[in-house]
Amino acid sequence: MLSSKGLESISLARDTVFAAVMIILTGIIGVCIIVGSLKYREQVFTLQGVSTALITLTSIVVFILILPNYTISHTGGEYTPYQLIFISLICLALYMGFTMIQTVRHRAYFIAPIPNKSSDFIEDDVPLEKPSRKVMYFSIMLLLLCLGIVVLLAKYLSKDVDTLVIGLGAPKSLVGIIIAGIVLLPEGIAAIRAAYNNRIQTSLNLALGSALASIGLSIPFIAFVSVIAGMRMMLGISIKSILLLGLSLFIITVSLATGRTKIMQGFVLIAIFILYLFTTLEP
């Protein structure tokens, strides 16, 4: 039987993934809404695609970060190895299902309803040639390879960041925020540029897609590695974090429920993001 007793517990993955979700939901999307609203007042997007991403993300977030606190087979916000494998498979299935919806079955849900012809970005409504099976399998292999590289780089980077955080006397959870911020920097810049060019649909696709990949793909990958290596993996977040995460999911769902973005929505999201950072530094 698989056992994790007496082995080192891992919390960096949880802290990093939680930070990534909070940064995306409140920070990146908040900035995108503000940037777009300042220039265009209102921006429109396809509601079906955003709602599909949000219900998938909410389910995976609950499975990964909240449910471990309430299972009784293992205490301390951890799953048993069998539970961890089962939850990882469920999350992978949800992520793959979302990817199929986004790229094959309902691509129109993720296309801007009013394309901006003056934008520097490639138009979403341009028909794309369907890739061959060979290209698809090769892309999947590259995705898994890159995911492994990112995980390893984050592990090595965490040592230096951890030393810096300890030297500053800051809480260790700040390590996850710094690593998540570095990893999400390219997607964040691309999403903000898209919003500035009146492509809020592209911004939301990038942001929510990154959030889903961060938790729906990375955590199962790390979970399988931890089970094979015999390491424990802490996933459950604190009550304070659950409240902030729940508030973020509620606000983002309500804010994006109309298919239009307004500047006040961005201000509220940024306020939650600042509060999240403050309560991390001053718990």
TrEMBL record:
Q: Where are the transmembrane segments?
A: 17-38, 50-70, 82-101, 135-154, 174-196, 208-231, 237-256, 263-281
Q: Which UniProt keywords apply?
A: Membrane, Transmembrane, Transmembrane helix
**Compartments, as annotated in UniProt:** Membrane
Please list the GO terms describing molecular function: potassium:proton antiporter activity; sodium:proton antiporter activity
- How does the record say this protein sits in the membrane? Multi-pass membrane protein
Where does the Sodium/calcium exchanger membrane region domain lie?
9-103, 139-279
> Listed GO cellular component terms?
plasma membrane
Q: Which domain of life is it from?
A: Bacteria
Q: What is this protein called?
A: Calcium/proton antiporter
Q: Which organism is it from?
A: Elizabethkingia anophelis
